[in-house]
Model the fold of this input.
Amino acid sequence: MALFKRTRREDVSDPAKLLVADHQKVERIFDEIHASEEVVPRQGLVAQLDFEFSMHATIEEQILYPFIRANVPEGDPMMEQAEHEHDEAKAALAALVNADPGGDAFEGAVRELEGLFKAHVKEEEKTVFPRLADATSPEALATLRADLEEAKFGSTEPRPLEAEAPAPAKKSAARKSTAKKATARKAAARKATAKKATARKATAKKAAVKKAAAKRAPAKRAAAKKAAVRKAAARKAPAKKATARKATARKAAAKKAPAKKSAAKKATAKRR
Done:
């Protein structure tokens, strides 16, 4: 079941064809989840969905989005929105992975993630991919395709894209095997995403430290100025005290002088 009417791989650039194939693969997994009522098959399909989406999101965030930011007009705001949509979908995917496949919340978690996925895919295939093709030379598109393939498959060898038609229904054992492989491989995608998140946190932490230091700087300067004033005052204090003592001594001497003169006059008078 197609999520919306649109032209697909035949009308997009080579890098976009690889990503549209991922979109279609995820759509088929959603179809199989809706068709399945058994717990074990649902678990396997959710594991597949987790791996496919995580890998797809990682190569977009590491390869495609930086390329678009650097080469497509108004690429920055488009990619800000795309990364926000990825974050929402990752949160919904985590809720689905943690949901009980046999519980009442499972269907709601599937619908929530599918709705976010549908909106994101529509934006990419209708807006982002055409702008990428219009703004980029064939040579640059070929290089971008090779970079995406290397990130996804570990090789730059061309690989055939999957057919548009839904794959035939698989047996439970095959699903279990696929789920096991997906579980073993999805760690790489999660690790890459976590590494990027850690780098962002470190950058934000550094910025916060710089901002806090800038806020504290005026207070530090004021404190240093007050300390310098106190230090200068402390150096001047002994001189002030000595000056005050001298002034006091002069005043006392001035008070005693008349008495001394009077006593001297009296002594002189007596001798006469």
User: Anything to note?
Assistant: Confidence is low (pLDDT under 50) at residues 1-7, 155-176.
